[in-house]
Design a protein that fits this description.
Growth Hormone, Chain: A, 2 strands, two-stranded antiparallel ribbon, 2 domains, globular, MFS, plasmid, about 75% helix, mainly alpha
């Protein structure tokens, strides 16, 4: 897996991701402490509002940023957004009012909503071999999980010698490091063949996404991982602290079990995806996560949930979660031409976070109203509905050539190559604005 780091451009991209993630992790800890300093017992409300603002920024800003990406040098855009994020991080230690936190978080997450899809869309342009790209996706998933484990420990170590506000300077350093690494490389910036109106550029990614059958299946799988993932992220602290009366360290261990399952799955996926289709692996991963959640729910109804059972269940759910998310970049890369990739990755970013925006509050409400067992069962049932939808929306032969006609094109058009009808795998674009029906040959 590490052999792909021999590619200098990708190596610098990956290092930029690592330092930015580390900075973001420090900000997560520092933001919680800042909320407590400003709001005391109302800190949870402040953080909940900040998370909602984050999701709203992700859902609304990403398509607009993708429209800008078509007309902008991608490397300059990424560096500029890193500098915006750095500037926000520098401002955070000086805030004195809660509303200032909300404004800065919106700016910060808006910049991230532009940065992340464009960054992700650049990787398949750099690693054009699909095996290398698959390894990069697994490495990226490992980086995310390691950051979730390492950043809190780094923050705890720093807090022994510095104040909580100083952590934001670490965040700023992370974004500055990312920008400096991006300065050292050249990134491909494929441009559309003809300029498009602003509205078309803004909505093109979501329209192309929803017109592609396998991506409609991916959206249903986003629903699945949001349902099971929200239960883990939102309610682990309640299950462990209130339900089991265990210390804070046990919360960290439970979340580490989820991350460990995800990391193990990510390490195994490159070889697995060489033998099995993406559809099989991703549907199986979703089914695994749902089954683990349902079994935990039934166990909670039978007798009080133990920490050992919860940790094992969280690890299995983490493995299924990663098996769905890690290969998703391959689907997106295959479903768009290079010029359209930022828009399609932005559509995935927007639509997947819309699912999280639904399930974050829903999982919290279910837990508060009905308890752990009922919440897990309800979310498992909602996730199962998403899995059924994914199976129906994502055809088994979605990568196969489709015989179709272009009655609007002249017989000598280069795309037809002298054949009418003709066949090739379908990517939604200007020549194929809708997924065509199979035409008899």
């Amino acid at each position: 897996m590490l052999s792909i780091l021999q590619n200098r451009t990708y190596r610098h991209l990956f290092l930029a991701q690592i330092v930015a993630l580390t900075g973001t992790g420090l900000a997560t800890v520092a933001l919680g402490l800042l909320a407590f300093d400003l709001a005391g017992e109302r800190a949870g409300l402040v953080l909940g509002t900040a998370l909602t603002i984050k999701m709203v920024a992700y859902v609304t800003v990403a398509p607009i940023a993708a429209a800008s990406a078509e007309q902008t040098d991608r490397r300059k855009m990424l560096i500029g957004l890193d500098l915006v994020r750095m500037a926000v991080a520098v401002c955070l230690p000086f805030v004195s009012e809660v509303w200032q936190v909300y404004v800065l978080i919106f700016v910060l997450q808006s910049a991230s909503a532009g940065f992340t899809p464009a960054f992700q869309a650049s990787i398949p342009d750099v690693l054009t071999d699909e095996k290398d790209y698959t390894r990069a996706l697994s490495l990226s998933r490992l980086a995310f999980e390691l950051e979730s484990l390492a950043s809190p420990m780094l923050a705890a170590a720093l807090l022994l010698v510095v104040s909580s506000g100083t952590l934001f300077w670490g965040t700023a350093a992370g974004f500055a490091g990312s920008a400096l690494l991006l300065l050292t490389i050249a990134l491909p910036s494929p441009a559309p063949k003809a300029p498009r109106p602003v509205w078309e550029r803004t909505t093109r990614g979501i329209r192309n996404y929803l017109r592609t059958p396998r991506l409609r299946g991916l959206l249903a799988l986003n629903w699945v991982v949001s349902a099971i993932g929200a239960m883990v992220i939102v309610n682990t602290v309640v299950l462990v602290r209130a339900g089991m009366a265990l210390p804070e360290s046990s919360v960290a261990l439970a979340l580490a079990a989820f991350g460990g399952g995800s990391m193990l799955s990510a390490m195994l996926l490159p070889r697995l995806l060489e033998r099995l289709p993406d559809r099989t692996v991703m549907l199986a991963g979703a089914g695994l996560g749902i089954a683990a959640m349902a079994i935990l729910a039934l166990a909670a109804f039978a007798q009080p949930l133990t920490f050992a059972r919860l940790a094992i269940g969280w690890a299995v759910i983490g493995a299924g979660y990663s098996a769905v998310l890690t290969p998703s970049g391959r689907l997106l890369a295959r479903s768009a031409h290079a010029a359209d990739r930022p828009a399609v990755f932005a559509a995935q970013f927007t639509l997947s976070h819309a699912c999280w925006l639904l399930f974050y509050p829903l999982s919290a409400w279910l837990m508060a109203a009905w308890g752990g067992g009922a919440a897990m069962l309800a979310l498992a049932l909602l996730a199962a509905a998403g899995l059924i939808a994914a199976q129906r929306l994502w055809p088994k032969d979605s990568a196969s050539p489709v015989a179709h006609s272009h009655p609007d094109l002249p017989p000598d058009h280069p795309h037809l190559q002298g054949a009418r009808p003709h066949a090739h795998p379908i990517i939604i674009d200007d020549l194929h604005p809708q997924y065509p029906q199979q035409t008899p040959r």
